[in-house]
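Re: that chain you flagged

S.,

Sorry for the slow reply, it's been a week of failed gels. I finally had a moment to sit down with the sequence you sent. For the record, here it is as I used it:
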Amino acid sequence: MPKGESPLISIVTLNYNQVETTCALLESTRSLRYPNYEILVCDMASSEDPSERIRNGNYPRVKVLLSPANLGFAGGNNWGMRQAKGDFILILNNDTVVTPDLLDRLLQPFFEDPTIGATSPKIKYYYRPTYIQYAGFNPMNMYTGRTTSIGLGEEDKGQYNVSRVTAGAHGCAMMVKKETIEKTGMFAEKFFLYYEEWDWSARIVKAGYKIWYAADAEVYHKESQTVGKSSPLKAYYLTRNRILYMRRNANVFQFAVFTVVFIFFIAPKRITFYLLKKKFIHLKYFIKGIWWNLHNSSRSRI
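Prediction finished late last night. Pasting the structure tokens below so you have them in one place:
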């Protein structure tokens, strides 16, 4: 960034019945070298108020905001962003651990290229710290509604150490400048959980901005602490929002192909899997995810 410039960065992170995890993140932020930031811990109506526990930790620059309801990932982060004072906002999962120069390295690309609207770091697994979860995204397949994370599960040997434009920002850790938010809105709250960062990424790109993978910035992710790696809730939202994303972002031809693929290939495959594994609750929520799209508009508050 230009010498002497340290714009305010607002770090927005959600807490839902995970005060231990959130405090571990806050503990890691003590190492941040960047001089001008605030941290907004947005509690999503946890069963216990985390304020005292966080206050007793004496974490620097932290404000605890208490929502009267669980607004989900999309709505909760929007609620936090509306109260943020920063020129740049970092959406950060509470189950992450930051590195000392994270803020500096995510911020720098915005000064080098004004057409960059969002940046995301290299994300590694906390419990396998030499392995990659995210080094950018491949483009969304607009006929299947699926994408893949570049480098997923690979050992980090420097093969993704070159920063570049990427197809999508990662909701686990994404920095957005205020100008981008003003022009594109925030997360579409109808998604609640999953695919929301892809929908926002699509709007950011449509608005003429680039999404940047900052290879020299890193966070470590504990992954799926809230809903679990294979829960009925996850099956529901992944199914529901995969279809919702396509309804909102595919053209007529793409959506027609997607519909055929989903009906004749994707749905039978998932149903067979759940039946063979005797995951009947997962099957119920998979069907509920499909059913939701038949009875709800694709439009949403942004």
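What I noticed first: Residues 232-295 form one domain.

Talk soon,
D.
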